[in-house]
Amino acid sequence: MEQNYINQEEVSRRIPGRLAVNKVVRGLFLTSTLFGLVVLAILLYDVITDSWGWIDWQFLTSVMSFNEEAAGIIGAISGTLWLMLIVGPVTMIIGVATAIYLEEYVKEGRVRTFFETNVANLAGVPSIVFGLLGLTVFVRLMNMGSVVLAGGLTMSLLVLPIVIVSAQESLRAVPSYLREASFGMGATRWQTIRSVVLPAALPSILTGMILAMSRAIGETAPLIALGIPALLIPLPSGLFDSFTVLPVQVYYWTIDAALNQNYASLAAATIVVLLVLMFILNSAAILIRNKFQQRF
Amino acid sequence: MSINSLQERPSREEATVTQEEAREAVFRTEGLNLWYGNTQALHNIELDQRANEVTAIIGPSGCGKSTYIKTLNRMVQMNPIVKVTGKVYYRDQNIFDRKFPVEELRTRVGMVFQKPNPFPKTIFENVAYGPKIHGIRNKKLLAEIVEESLKGAAIWEEVKDRLQENAFGLSGGQQQRLCIARCLAIEPDVILMDEPTSALDPKSTLKVEELVQQLKSKYSIMIVTHNMQQAARISDRTAFFLNGEVIEFDETDKIFSNPSDKRTEDYITGRFG
């Protein structure tokens, strides 16, 4: 080169400014990250101080009561577990089957785009609409009433798109050379899916499943639309029993806090239980992912 | 033997006679054309694979050699945009015939891929996979097949004490021989190899080459290779592909010592490609 294009003095002069920008940007990212964490911390502080002294064995194992000292959430806990018992298998079977069909059977093209767009749209439908859907189809049309099965199926519909999309991602992450190896030996499509693709994708599918479950546990609106009772004494013992769940319990206690300040504390205590449950589920999801993660 | 004299396909009655002969054609390709969408990748291919011989397919990148070998077990048609005309006979059955299930073809025609692709399973399960999908459940029998196949692929001694370990723990060269063992376990008639040593180091490459030499007494082998020395070392016959056409197909010795086409000579002497 005839001349120097880069002026070293100019470079030195600009360095402090560049480093300053570098720091500012890092600070911006950190602030964004902290925003969510700080709000969560405030919420945690709030509910824990509100519920202090209210969470004890009696609270966890008693049924509902108007007397706040005697009230407990065993009904809501068992209702939530019943709900999971339906949402888990139903979404696992239907969601994974749908994902397998879309990823492994339908050729890329208009049909697949049509299906995928609709699944994505379904994921964006407000949860209260699913509640009204459940009310119309399961509670009224099929005449079930506001029972465990109706709630479970409604909740399954709500989280199905999440399960489908995450299962699709998991299947797509299985390298195509594994499928080729299997097809190359004369395996049928189903044999390849069952013996090669699904085992490789399962950890990731399970992670998506658990995250969908924790969404289902926290949802309130659709169940309120279904007409889940505010006050329920007997525990559900079957699919056709009435039930209530933790977030619905929180909702009604929060509304009634105007009548009795202690109900606010009960709501806070229920929130803590709900958060602990979700924390356990999310930890399980992370553990499964780490334990079975396969490097291809 | 020239290409033309092979074009006359024996009728079914004659085929039973020629099967007595050691070197009948197991694959017979007649006027094969193949398109990816609107781009033609193979032009009027005429090629035979004879029993118990190693056929090498050489040519520069993008000449269609991988496409051709993947046509023989119909793997290429997994890509929905591929269109094919012409005929390929596997032992007198047209492989594009709707009545010939692709699963059956692939049981007779095994494939070893460019990149070693063991399943994320144990070494044992990798080899047992093929027999299992074809219905063998007997554990003792499976164990026998696994041992025989691993011996056949010259890797038994290295893995016999670690059959229950994950196949991903093997080296690249071992993985490729495991894939060959997996292929042998379905007792194929033909083995297609798509640049099986391109991802391997020289020592592993040598092992695979020796293996190919041993295997040809029992199997018919077609091997795509980028490496001309490899083709010269291990094959009986060599086809030179260029721009989707077979430029020359002859005895390997003839191709490498006295090619009849100028383009073949240019390629093997390293003037292009």
UniProtKB/TrEMBL annotation, chain A:
CDD domains: TM_PBP2 (cd06261). Keywords: Cell membrane, Membrane, Transmembrane, Transmembrane helix, Transport. Pfam families: BPD_transp_1. One of its GO terms (molecular function) is phosphate transmembrane transporter activity. The keyword Cell membrane applies. NCBIfam families: 3a0107s02c (TIGR00974). This is Phosphate transport system permease protein PstA. It comes from Alkalicoccus daliensis.
From TrEMBL, chain B:
Gene3D superfamilies: P-loop containing nucleotide triphosphate hydrolases. The keyword ATP-binding applies. Residues 1-21 are annotated as: Disordered. Residues 9-21 have a biased composition (Basic and acidic residues). The keyword Transport applies. GO terms for biological process: phosphate ion transmembrane transport. Keywords: ATP-binding, Nucleotide-binding, Transport. It comes from the Bacteria. InterPro entries: AAA+_ATPase, ABC_transporter-like_ATP-bd, ABC_transporter-like_CS, P-loop_NTPase, PstB-like. GO terms for cellular component: membrane. PROSITE patterns: ABC_TRANSPORTER_1 (PS00211), ABC_TRANSPORTER_2 (PS50893). Residues 27-268 form the ABC transporter domain. GO terms for molecular function: ATP binding; ATP hydrolysis activity; phosphate transmembrane transporter activity. NCBIfam families: 3a0107s01c2 (TIGR00972). PANTHER family: ABC TRANSPORTER I FAMILY MEMBER 17. This is Phosphate transport system ATP-binding protein. The lineage of its organism: Bacteria, Bacillati, Bacillota, Bacilli, Bacillales.
